[in-house]
Design goal:
With 224 residues, the protein is an alpha+beta fold. The protein is built from ten helices and four strands; from the N terminus they run αααααααααββαββ. It has one domain: Hypothetical protein af1432, CATH 1.10.3210.10. It holds the Pfam family HD.
Length: 224
């Protein structure tokens, strides 16, 4: 069976991730490299475990989280689709058993549908990937931390304003919670929603697919 360790050590996956990081650095985007993909992979696996998915499903969510952005080096637009196809090219011919092929197809579906602009949540792995990916908002994602850049780039400014980010689940209440601490001297809460409103709506829909509620807490103010 395909494992996260095998994926991480695959030369093709490594090359795509490196190329993606280089390309998005060139464009001036926030971090989409090793830090981000490992955060997403870890969060996805933890969430899968906490909502009661099997160990195999937990592994698949971790793989999807690790590979979800690998298509960015080809194009930002529709990178979810190119990433899914690239993933299949690396592994589909190595696994002939129908269950293994099914696992690969589920990962492909999750990767292909993780973007909020063209989304269709069709499996639990995909829903978990959405939540793990869109919840990664933090100043550590900002590459260019110069005052001039922070001032002019609203995406970097909003990310840089997030001093602490906690992603957790309340099993009893079936709540998936993103708790942020924002420095309002850098950006206001309304500016956060100006940039991330679509993503938070996507998180709500993903949580509902998992029969949970998405809760956003900003500076101890609860939004649900």
């Amino acid at each position: 069976m395909l494992t996260l360790n095998e994926v991480k050590n695959h030369p093709g996956i490594k090359a795509c991730i490196k190329k993606t990081e280089q390309y998005l650095d060139y464009l001036g985007y926030t971090d989409h490299g090793p830090r981000h993909i490992n955060v997403v992979s870890d969060r996805a696996k933890s969430l899968a475990k906490n909502i009661g998915l099997s160990e195999r499903e937990q592994e698949l969510t971790a793989i999807a989280g690790y590979c979800h952005d690998m298509g960015n080096f080809l194009q930002r637009t529709d990178h979810c689709y190119t990433g899914a196809i690239l993933f299949s090219q690396f592994f589909i011919n190595d696994y002939k058993d129908s269950k293994d092929v099914s696992d690969i197809l589920e990962i492909m579906q999750a990767i292909a549908n993780h973007d909020e602009h063209k989304f269709e949540i069709i499996n639990k792995i995909g829903a978990i990937l959405v939540l793990a990916d869109k919840s990664d908002v933090h100043r550590n994602r900002v590459k260019n931390k110069t005052p001039e850049n922070i001032k002019k780039d609203i995406h970097d400014r909003v990310n840089y304003s997030v001093m602490d980010s906690v992603f957790k689940i309340n099993k009893q209440k079936k709540e998936i919670i993103l708790k942020l601490t924002i420095d309002t001297e850098i950006t206001g809460v309304m500016e956060y929603f100006e940039i991330f409103n679509e993503r938070m709506i996507f998180c709500r829909k993903a949580a509902e697919f998992l029969d949970c509620h998405f809760v956003l807490v900003i500076n101890n103010f609860k939004l649900s």
